[in-house]
Amino acid sequence: MTGRLVVMGSGETAPTMIKVHRRLFELVGDSPALLLDTPYGFQENADEITARARKYFCDSVGRSVDVLSWREEPVEGLARERALAALRAARWVFAGPGSPTYALRQWTGTPLPVMLADVVRSGGVVVFASAAALTLGSHAVPVYEIYKAGEPACWRPGLDLVHRLTGLYAVVIPHYDNAEGGHHDTRYCYLGERRLALLERELPDEAFVLGVDEHTGCILDPSAETVTVVGNGTVTSRRRGLSSVFVSGSVVTFGELTGGRVVTPAAVADDRAGAAVNVATSLRAAADAHETAFVSALRGHDIAGCVAAILALEQSLADWSADTLTSDEADHAHSLLRSMVVRLGGLAEHGGRDPRAPVAPFVDALLRIRSNAREAKDFATSDAVRDSLAAAGVEVRDTPTGVEWEFATSGKSTPPRTGKG
Q1: In the beta sheet, which residues pair with residue 4?
Q2: Span 21-42, mean pLDDT?
Q3: Which helix (H) or strand (E) holds 247?
Q4: Alpha-carbon separation of residue 23 from 18, 27, 87, 273, 280 (angstroms)
Q5: What is the mean pLDDT of residues 42-55?
Q6: Hey, which residues does 218 pair with through a beta bridge?
Q7: Residue 154: helix, strand or coil by DSSP?
């Protein structure tokens, strides 16, 4: 049985990919699972990234994974052989964020690329996301060198693992729909259209760009020669500026992937087990949604609704804690959480329900007496009722639409209440 090679555009440790990971783990059962730490191995917080990823797979996906530490190519000896033995036994291998060029320096010229291919050929699953995904094709984008350090747009040799397993001459680009740049173009993993168009001219005729959107997965099945799109976005096959787009839920053949056929939602396969679900695509989006729910509950003096929104936001912070691409989104979410707590405190301080509600039946009864007195031309009684209410802190106003009343100390924070007289 042939396994799967999976490309994730981003969100590999986010809530958006939980169901996809579970689906992939079902293919390998209880076989050994390894997290490969190479792409971020140079970072000072590498141990923290590993710990967060393992916690995500254990707590959110429900699967424990071991760590294959290959932060630098192991020297000849026992440590290297142990690492290779663990990789040889694995049936699920994952690599994610970091630097693609750093990872390539550690992997190129070692047995690792061949052994990754063997994992798939023996029925296992290899999941490469974000930076690691960039290494899978015949050519790799040195994204940090271009986008951060200003090097001219160029390719670096990739592992060519896609071609080894599928025969497809693919150049893999994750973060294909990235929009972090705002007013400047950061699509195509921060390359933008101008630089991608320049780089495409340098590719051989048989090569094409395999673009995978953020929070989206592309499952390559070498045996069935099919591609399945899962997650929130799309997969794009692009050659010389011409693109074919495949929506989430699509199952297409390798020939359709490279043949220029555009798949619309009407042509999507019925089996949408890995298609997009109603999961926020970022921590910021989740936080903003909870803030909206909180504001709605606050306006209705709904304390239970306010508490539910706060707890939901706190859960979202926990769910997204393993994601490596939240940037300032965690700060934004924490700021909203603190603001919600403060505003809930204000609601509790002034009472969770309309302060007029407990006395409204009595005030309305007195206003009916006043109304009856006025109709009977008994202005002395009418004025006495009004003066008594004023002494108790209730202001009564006669308007063209009827009588309204409010507490004298409530100011404009509470709309006047319509009375009966």
Answers
A1: 125
A2: 97
A3: strand 242-247
A4: 9, 7, 21, 9, 20
A5: 96
A6: 7, 229
A7: coil
The widest CA-to-CA distance across the chain, in whole angstroms, is: 108
How many Å is the Cα radius of gyration of the chain? 31
Task: Give the DSSP H or E segment for 242.
Answer: strand 242-247
Q: How far apart are CA 394 and CA 388, in angstroms?
A: 9
DSSP count for the chain of H helices, then E strands: 16, 17
The HSE-up count of residue 158 (CA atoms within 13 Å, CB side) is: 27
Is the four-CA dihedral 338, 340, 343, 348 of positive or negative sign?
negative
pLDDT digit string, tens, across residues 338-396: 888 888 887 776 665 666 777 888 888 888 898 888 889 888 888 898 888 888 888 88
Q: Please report the sign of the dihedral spanned by the C-alpha atoms of residue 307, residue 313, residue 316, residue 318.
A: negative
Separation between Cα atoms, residue 333 and residue 284, nearest integer Å: 6
The SS3 call for residue 63 is coil
Q: What is the C-alpha separation between 421 and 418, in angstroms, rounded?
A: 9
Question: Rounded to an integer, what distance in angstroms lies between the CA atom of residue 156 and that of residue 187?
Answer: 19
**What are the residues facing 405 on neighbouring strands?**
396, 417
Q: Residue 244: in which H helix or E strand, if any?
A: strand 242-247
Q: What is the DSSP string of 162-205?
A: HHHHH---EEEE-STT--TTTTS--HHHHTHHHHHHHHHTTS-T
Across-strand partners of 139? 157
Domains of the chain (ranges, CATH numbers): 4-259 (3.40.50.880), 283-352 (no CATH), 359-407 (no CATH)
Instruction: Give one DSSP letter per residue of 93-148, joined into a string.
Output: EEE-SS-HHHHHHHHTTSSHHHHHHHHHHTT-EEEEEHHHHTTSSSEE--HHHHHT
Burial label for 71, CB within 10 Å (0-12, 13-18, 19+), is: middle
- Contact at 8 Å (CB) between 133 and 9? yes
Q: Which residues, including other chains, have CB under 8 Å from residue 312's CB and lie 6 or more apart?
A: 290, 293
> How confident is the model over 11-17, as a mean pLDDT?
94
